[in-house]
Amino acid sequence: MTGKWLRWIPAVAVPAVIAGGVLVGSLPASAGDPLPAKTPQQVLLMIAQRQEKSLSGTLEQSSEMGLPQLPKAGPDTGSPDTAWLELLTGPHTARVYLDGPENARVQVMDRMAERNAIKHGNELWFYNSKDNTAAHAQLPAGSAEHHRTGPGTMRAPEELADTLLAKLDETTDVKVGPDVRVAGRPAYNLVLTPKSTVTLMGSIAISVDGASGLPLGVELRARGQSEPAFRVAFTNLSLETPDASVFEFSPPPGATVKEIPVPEHTSEGPMARPDKAHEPKGATRPAVTGTGWESVIELPAGALAAPPTSSDPQSPDRGVPGGSSSGAAALLEQAATPVPGGRLVSTALVNVLILDDGRVFAGAVPLERLQSAARG
């Protein structure tokens, strides 16, 4: 975590454990006795000082991003590579179980099936009941993965906190709106509003539990829209410790199990360069132009191509520019529309420009800004 948002709270709080989870969700109307008034800095301090706690609950997520329904059939549909795209369309329900930094389970409830991501100590499992497939990874001792789950699941609290609260800098206005209630609990309503008049993002509203400092929900609104474009919130929540058996997992009989290789850390060690700790060796980092909410990310040609699956340089399965695409890339292509010089995947909050030369530009900005970045 970069800690950019710590500038909003007193310096004495910097060493505090950053453990508040942010979940994207609908914020119901206020009810009951009002919470004591707090400034934005005080609400952020509540999040920063929250200790790791145990919980279990149900999340409801809905998306009105303007993204077309993605195909439900195909060899890659439902794979970890494509499941995250499926979560961007339609409503989804998930059960979440947490017990400190070592144990987490997320169950995404699909129609007649479910997807599971389970972390138990250094063991990491992904399981899809639809096709009885499982993937397993052994995390290094002392790994800082904490509650990170993986593709195809609704994201764990800390991951969303890192993404959203990192935007708190001079490009963002912060205020505390009227109290709200989420999962029956009174919460502060922390509202982040970009100062930029260019970004597609209109506002982010984070509900923060008035008693524990746990973020209970967040809703993302696109500029000029009254209804949230993306939201997830707890519909019920218990702060009691889940039964230990929830975090135990063994593949069912007949399941196909795949081992996931864990990228090696650089020789500098994971704490030396946190931004590169989990980067595979030889990885090309994306370039970024612009600042704040107007930032545009550039991926090099071939970034969306599938990784090599054959030692034969001429194999059609090799991930070369112009070669076969990964499942996620194929689905993105189907959701794209033609524009001069390439294709555009347009949503209410983010635009992705895939150029004919294979380069990819993405950002919470209009198409014209992506095209300008592409011209250099």
Order of helices and strands: HEHEEEEEHEEEEEEEEHEEEEH
Question: Mean pLDDT, as a whole number?
Answer: 75
Side-by-side strand order of the widest sheet: 7-8-9-10-11-1-2-3-4-5-6-12
Number of strands: 18
Describe the oligomeric state of these chains in a short phrase: single chain
Q: What's the tally of helices?
A: 5
Helicity range: 10-25%
What profile does the largest beta sheet have?
12 strands, mixed
Low-confidence stretches: 1-31, 72-78, 144-152, 266-280, 306-325
Main structural class: mainly beta
> Any idea what the radius of gyration is?
21 Å
Spatial shape: globular
Kindly report how far apart the N and C termini lie: 30 Å
What is the beta-strand fraction? 25-35%
Structure description:
The chain is mainly β and 376 residues long. α2 (80-86) runs parallel beside α4 (327-335). The protein has helices spanning 40-49, 80-86, 157-165, 327-335, 367-375; strands spanning 55-63, 92-99, 103-110, 113-120, 123-128, 133-138, 172-182, 185-194, 201-209, 215-222, 230-238, 256-259, 287-289, 296-299, 337-339, 342-346, 351-355, 360-363.
SSE arrangement:
Layout: H1 40-49, E1 55-63, H2 80-86, E2 92-99, E3 103-110, E4 113-120, E5 123-128, E6 133-138, H3 157-165, E7 172-182, E8 185-194, E9 201-209, E10 215-222, E11 230-238, E12 256-259, E13 287-289, E14 296-299, H4 327-335, E15 337-339, E16 342-346, E17 351-355, E18 360-363, H5 367-375
Parallel strand pairs: 6-12
Antiparallel strand pairs: 1-2, 1-11, 2-3, 3-4, 4-5, 5-6, 7-8, 8-9, 9-10, 10-11, 13-14, 14-18, 15-16, 16-17, 17-18
